[in-house]
Design goal:
Elements: E1 7-11, H1 15-27, E2 31-35, H2 38-47, E3 52-56, H3 64-74, E4 79-84, H4 89-97, E5 102-105, H5 110-182, H6 193-220, E6 230-233, H7 234-251, E7 254-260, E8 266-269, H8 271-289, E9 293-302, E10 305-312, H9 319-322, H10 342-352, E11 356-361, E12 367-374
Parallel strand pairs: 1-2, 1-3, 3-4, 4-5, 7-9
Antiparallel strand pairs: 6-8, 9-10, 10-12, 11-12
Helix pairs in contact: 2-3, 5-6, 7-8, 8-10
The structure holds adenosine-5'-triphosphate (ATP) and magnesium ion.
Length: 380
């Protein structure tokens, strides 16, 4: 509605009057449909988008007030302006009580009616803006709650992992000591020695497994602040990231390939954060392709930096979105499907790692996200 003309439905049983008004509203740039009664009006509303209904009150069959009630029930976003007979202000007042935007007494002054219709449209737009603002706030609050939940979950998980590590270490040491004793020559011939050795071995194995889990947990919830730099195999990191998305891609008949230039086998970076970047970009690419297509990840040297490109054969990005996709909460995905934080987080990480991210895309021709990162330790 914002850009196009206002969609008006004019309801009146007097054909000559209706045609005359419709013609004049039309000349003033409004798009007018007509109905000669309440039933006809409802049939039109069921099929087409209407912003404002202008209706006579006194009509045979369903009258204007009943039509108003039906509209308020079925189409609460539509505004209704009533046209009352001369000296029939009571009808108008009753209409306003039932939710009409306003009423005008016949004979109608056409500029007055046009102005009223515009006001009704403005009211609709203000309401729509408010609704959008509320929706935006709601999404933001949801996101904040999710982030906080994740943070407290992270704190809890690391806390538990940390606490459990100490007793695990003690159990492991004690089990090792038991094995040591059982293996001594003096224990030869001790009753059920083999059973005890076996049991001690099982304890050691299980402790080892538990420790692997706690270590993973401690790694996974690593704080996103600050970078933990180390020498990383770029190829292995890409393979690991792709493996996490591989199944979803397979289900959609999407092939993900990677190619890493020999010269950039190893780079100095934070693997956990860079993996997050890869996962975000490759996931976006898979979503953009939808079904049946390709995602290609390449890494090449570029001076003392490395350029990593994630390219897809998806729908591409329209020009007017290109500068907005890195904004927090910008998403073209259905509500609940995307938060619009993926690229925002991605860019933050890349910049924290001393790099840059850019994008090249045309609608219908896929998209390419290019990350440039330092390859070697930078002196600070
Ligand atoms: N490879 C791509 N091809 C086409 N459009 C893309 C691509 N990557 C991102 N976009 C566009 O950028 C928007 C923002 O991406 P971003 O990753 O920030 O959020 P999202 O994917 O919508 O949600 P999420 O928070 O789940 O990642 C997407 O909604 C999409 O419109
Ligand atoms: Mg995303």
């Amino acid at each position: 509605m914002e850009n196009g003309s206002i969609q008006v439905l004019l309801v009146d049983d007097e054909e000559g009057f209706r045609q005359a008004i419709a013609r004049r509203l039309d000349r003033r740039g409004l798009a007018v449909r007509q109905a000669e009664g309440g039933e006809g009006a409802l049939a039109i509303l069921a099929e087409s988008a209407v912003d404002v209904v202008v209706s006579d009150v006194r009509m045979p069959g369903m009258d204007g007030l009943e039509l108003l009630d039906r509209i308020k029930q079925g189409y609460p976003e539509i505004e209704v302006i009533l046209l009352t007979g001369h000296a029939c202000a009571d009808d108008g007042v009753a209409g306003i009580k039932s939710g009409a935007f306003d009423y005008l007494c016949k004979p109608i002054e056409i500029d007055h009616l046009t102005e009223k219709i515009r006001q009704a449209r403005d009211k609709i737009q203000r309401r729509e803006e408010k609704r959008r603002e509320a929706e935006y706030r709601r999404r933001m609050e949801e996101q904040m709650i999710a982030t906080e939940r994740l943070a407290s979950l992270g704190t809890l998980a690391t806390g538990v992992a940390h606490e459990i590590n100490n007793p695990l270490a003690i159990i492991k040491e004690a089990a090792g000591w038991m094995t040591l004793i059982l293996n001594k020559p003096e224990m030869e011939g001790a009753p059920r020695r083999a059973d005890l050795q076996n049991a001690a071995g099982k304890i050691e194995d299980a402790v080892e497994r538990a420790r692997r889990i706690t270590h993973q947990l401690l790694g996974m919830v690593r704080k996103s602040e600050g970078a933990d730099m180390t020498d990383v195999s770029l190829d292995a990191l890409l393979a690991e990231s792709i493996a996490l998305i591989y199944k979803e891609a397979l289900n959609r008949d999407i092939e993900i390939t990677r190619w890493v230039d020999e010269a950039v086998r190893s780079i100095h970076t934070d693997p956990y954060q860079l993996r997050q970047v890869f996962i975000n970009l490759i996931t976006n690419a898979v979503h953009a392709v939808g079904k049946n297509g390709r995602v290609i990840v390449t890494a090449q040297p570029e001076g003392d930096r490395v350029a990593i490109t994630v390219k897809d054969t998806g729908e591409g990005i329209p020009k007017e979105h290109l500068e907005r996709i890195f904004e927090p909460f910008f998403s073209t995905k259905a509500p609940g499907k995307g938060t619009g934080l993926g690229l925002f987080v991605t860019r933050n990480i890349v910049e924290k790692l001393g790099g840059r991210i850019s994008v090249e895309s045309r609608v219908g021709q896929g998209a390419a996200f290019i990350i440039e990162l330092p390859r070697k330790k930078t002196k600070t």
